[in-house]
Design a protein that fits this description.
465 residues, alpha+beta, Alpha-Beta Plaits, 2 domains, 10-stranded mixed sheet, 31% helix
Length: 465
């Protein structure tokens, strides 16, 4: 077992996270001079559903921002032997690995050893017949699963790193497993040593949401002040072989790491602090000590664990039909009455069995008027040239009609969106700013799958092409 500290930095905490967040983290990991890993957590259940939908429609099934995230840091990570672990593979880990390989060629850096973790896709599971009823039972009557992905643990990530991987691409794994796999590989931890696996899981849980633990989600001006959120630094965990750890962030970045920020993240999404169920261990946080060391450093120890559950959670996606969203605005005297009349007209003209929700919202002044050359009298500027929305609101009274419809038949949704546009001249008077969108929908549900029916492994990307 290695005795030196191992550092794990976070480059993303969800699919929509800042693209450049990993840059200062990598710089800090390089400056430390010790062994390190960079993790990217970009896959929520919603994100996985959208990735499955995109792949189904012929689009990209992995993280759309993958290349932009890796471009500024890939060379440094390869040069300084900082491994990269990410669930940015989403619905297509093979496609993500191919894109990373192409990026390395474009940048002229050495070819990375890329491994993928497979087995989370239950639709390709060799025991599919045995789990089909379980998948079906979690869906509404008549619905069929489009995809089903089980939350894997850290063992396959650990195996890939032991096999020499520079980069490990996963699909659906438990969020803390991204860090735990790297930590367990470095220290050669046994997955039967539940207290150590609990410590690694706690480290991953602290890292998994990125800037939340460094003050982002914590910030509440006047109540919980956090400096320089525009340059929020993302977290780094320094962990030792006995499971003790320190949470910190890159020097010179914004945000803060305090006992309060760490405690908030520690309890984030935890149903039972004494029994947090993960694929690798049942984590008990009730005995954890949290010590503020100052200078954006917080020490934790005392995680305990017990045997992992016999079932694994799966996210099951099914067809949700189509949803249309549209709107039209009314201004001036009587705007609210005209807006409500517009809704009544839509209800009268659309099929009575069409699922429709509509409401009016008083917007006062719509920001779009600032870019559409509205009357000069509505534009009051400060000496710096910015718009004074308070003055605009005193002049303009806008009411926006928001409409949403849902149907399994796309034609029904298209007709509804067309009817919103027809309100321009069919009345009531004074409508404007019509916008509408139509999207296909994938919904999700959850199921518990017996662990012995899940077959997972890691393999070189080159063998999976």
């Amino acid at each position: 077992m290695h005795s030196e500290l191992f550092r794990v930095g976070c480059g993303a905490g969800f699919g929509g996270d800042r693209i450049d967040a990993a840059v200062p983290v990598v710089s800090a990991l390089v400056a430390s001079g010790g062994p390190a890993c960079l993790m990217f957590e970009t896959l929520a259940e919603r994100t996985l559903a959208l990735s499955q939908l995109a792949r189904r429609e012929g689009g990209v099934g992995y993280d759309l921002h993958l290349i932009d995230r890796l471009r500024p840091i890939l060379g440094a990570c390869l040069q300084h032997k900082i491994s990269i672990v990410g669930n940015f593979g989403a619905a297509d880990p093979v496609g993500a690995a191919k894109a990373i390989d192409a990026l390395a060629r474009e940048l002229g850096v050495r070819a990375p050893k890329i491994f993928i973790v497979i087995g989370d896709d239950l639709m390709a599971n060799p025991h599919r017949a045995e789990i089909d009823q379980t998948l079906q039972d979690c869906l509404p009557e008549g619905a069929l699963p489009l995809s089903a992905n089980v939350y894997l643990g850290a063992a396959e990530i650990c195996d890939a790193l032991h096999a020499g991987a520079d980069i490990v691409v996963t699909g659906r794994v438990a969020d803390p497993a991204l860090a735990l796999g790297a930590i367990a590989a470095h220290f050669d931890w046994s997955f039967d040593d539940y207290n150590l696996i609990a410590a690694g899981t706690m480290a991953g849980h602290l890292l998994e949401c990125g800037g939340q633990v460094t003050g982002g989600y914590f910030a509440d001006p006047g109540m919980k002040n956090v400096p320089d959120l525009a340059n929020l630094g993302f977290p780094i965990v320094e962990i030792s072989g006995d499971g003790a750890m320190v949470v910190t962030k890159p020097e010179g970045t914004g945000g803060c790491v305090t006992a309060r920020t760490v405690k908030e993240q520690l309890l984030y999404e935890i149903h039972d602090p004494a029994a947090y169920l993960t694929p690798d261990v049942v984590l008990d946080l009730t005995g954890v000590s949290v010590e503020d060391l100052g200078q954006d450093r917080v020490a934790l120890r005392g995680a305990r664990g017990t045997k992992r559950p016999e079932t694994l959670k799966a996210t099951v996606c099914y067809d949700g039909g189509f949803i249309g969203e549209g709107g039209i605005s009314y201004s001036g005297p009587g705007a609210e009455k005209r807006a409500r009349l517009a809704i009544d007209i839509l209800r009268a003209r659309l099929a009575p069995d069409l699922q429709m929700q509509a409401r009016t919202v008083s917007t006062q002044a719509q920001m779009s008027t600032l870019f559409e050359g509205g009357p000069e009298r509505l534009i009051a500027t400060s000496p710096a040239g910015s718009y004074n929305l308070t003055e605009i609101a005193e002049i303009q009274n806008d009411v926006r009609v928001h409409v949403a419809v849902r149907s399994n038949d796309k034609a029904d949704v298209e007709r509804a969106m067309h009817e919103i546009g027809a309100l321009y001249t069919c009345g009531p008077g004074g409508g404007g700013g019509v916008r509408s969108t139509i999207r296909s929908r994938v919904y999700t549900s959850s199921a518990l799958i017996p662990r012995n029916l899940v077959v997972a492994s890691c393999q070189k990307w080159s063998d999976a092409k």
